[in-house]
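Listing S7. Sequence submitted for prediction.
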Amino acid sequence: MKEAVIAVVYPDVDTFDEHVEAVLEMLPDTRCFPGCIEAHAGINRARFEIAVFHLWESNAHLERYLTWRAERGDLDARSATMRREQDFRTFSVP
């Protein structure tokens, strides 16, 4: 079963542009990661929010991707300058 991810990131206002740049730079690697069907980002400058949307072939593919990102330190690097914890949700797609 496919797995969909919706994550909303809440960067500090003064680091918002850096977060946008980092997320956009990460997308090509995400799209090329085994099992990724698609990956997109949405930017809301009025609310200083970044939404990330992924669709994966399976939950196992998503888990391998998240482990890879965590091992690289990509997730910790961004969380240091967040005004609140990100919302991270997954959904099984029949």
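Caption to Listing S7: primary sequence and predicted structure tokens for the chain studied. Residues 44 and 50 are 6 Å apart (CA to CA). The mean pLDDT is 94.
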